[in-house]
Amino acid sequence: xxxxxxxxxxxxxxxxxxxxxxxxxxxxxxxxxxxxxxxxxxxxxxxxxxxxxxxxxxxxxxxxxxxxxxxxxxxxxxxxxxxxxxxxxxxxxxxxxxxxxxxxxxxxxxxxxxxx
Length: 116
Known about the structure:
Elements: E1 2-7, E2 10-13, E3 18-26, E4 31-39, E5 46-52, E6 59-60, E7 68-73, E8 78-83, E9 92-100, E10 103-106, E11 110-115
């Protein structure tokens, strides 16, 4: 089992920055990647960013490319999402996800609100 806890959400003005953190506990054996998703009110949950847990390239949704940066620290068992140039349309609950072969683990989410 993997437990995930997100932090760092909040209210920010358009153009501002926030850094989300995801702390993992439990066995990280065979974890393939750490990911961030988001869900805005009335919309489906959507992919934001992905980083392989051990090595490999990151990937981003087109809507955040060039503004968001995903990172991870395998020693500390954490992942982070640095968000810059935030827009009102980035407002959503952001979820951390750990992908393991045959399993997915989710955090409880953290609210990000961007005011115009």
